[in-house]
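seq:
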Amino acid sequence: MKLTLPYGTGSMGFSLPRGCDITVLEGVKIPSLPLAEEFRRAWEDPIGLPDPEGIFNPGEKTVFVVTDHTRPTPTGEILSLIWERLEGRMTPDGATILVATGIHRPPRDDELDSILGDLRNRFQVVVHDCDRDLVEVGRSSRGTPILLNRLVVEADHVVSIGHIGMHYYAGYSGGRKNILPGVAGRSTIEANHAEMLSPGSEACVYSGNPVSEEMVEAARMVNLEFIVDVIFASDGGVAKIVIGEAEAAHAEGRAFWDEHFQVRLKERGDLVIASAGGHPKDIDLYQAYKGVYNAMRAVRDGGVVVLVAACPDGIGNEVFTSWIMRSASPADVIAIFKEEGFKLGGHEAVHLARDLNRASIYLYSEMDDRLVERFFLTPIKDLQDVVRIGRERFGDRFRTVVIPHAGDTFPLPVAG
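struct:
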């Protein structure tokens, strides 16, 4: 059986023997729609608010908050379509594009060009810095000081452009997440994410998720007028666009995602081969880990996960790197967490350490073998080696689950 998985900006192929019990786990196949046509439909039928164009008036300040280089949102195309409809109600000097980086590194010039295209030269573009130019807008119900970028605080209108998918502790991406963590201060992000190990802070959980609920509170503290969120088809095209009031539109978007990308698995695999989903989801190990999170839901205890992720930027987070580098074993990572408490980036090291207690994890990537091994993973240089790994560990008839888009495929719980 020949299979092809997304890898970096391309793909990688391999074959599995017919004697294996093979399950390819993907969401419901839905056709990609022409972006402009789907945008027009969503714009003309907004969710939870009247005509979006009527909100804006000349002379007002509008901030468009957009996702950064680690997200595949078709930002330039969407912004161009929005501008076609709003150009008569505002001028370019009344609009600012704010790139929501959270704690990520700032995008390079070529990445900004890829995100915005020609719009980069038409509007003021600001890259968020989580350590500068922040305003405290209040405190959440948990007492967290909410520090946000001054631009969104002082704007007359804030519009968020992103995409909706599974997020392994915030429940779902999109919507309010462009505000917190997208344009929030470091201390606010860290306090919010410290709840990630609390009950309810799980993938595909929205209500009752303490991380997500605080994000919602933060978004309500600024003039988030509406959201424009994309839900992607499995081929990377646009499956649906939701436009409207932040909570109402997001609810419709995540219901659509659940219907198409939550997948029931009859039996967990001995071997799970999972692609993070290609660029930019496998830009670094920190981002690609989301594929491991979902793959762990599909592997049996004592099984093997093979992550296929290019990781051209290496690890991708300094704290994640530090916690692993200070540890001689996964158990040491847990000990650091117990001693030092939550630190953003370290949380992912904790998740990885827990995963390694359940299964062995191999990595097919561009990373140096020694670095991969230092992160308690086993590097492979030929993807065809998965057959050898399966046979050595489980015999000739090992049960295999293949997840081509593991970052966006959510296996529902199964026994075994």
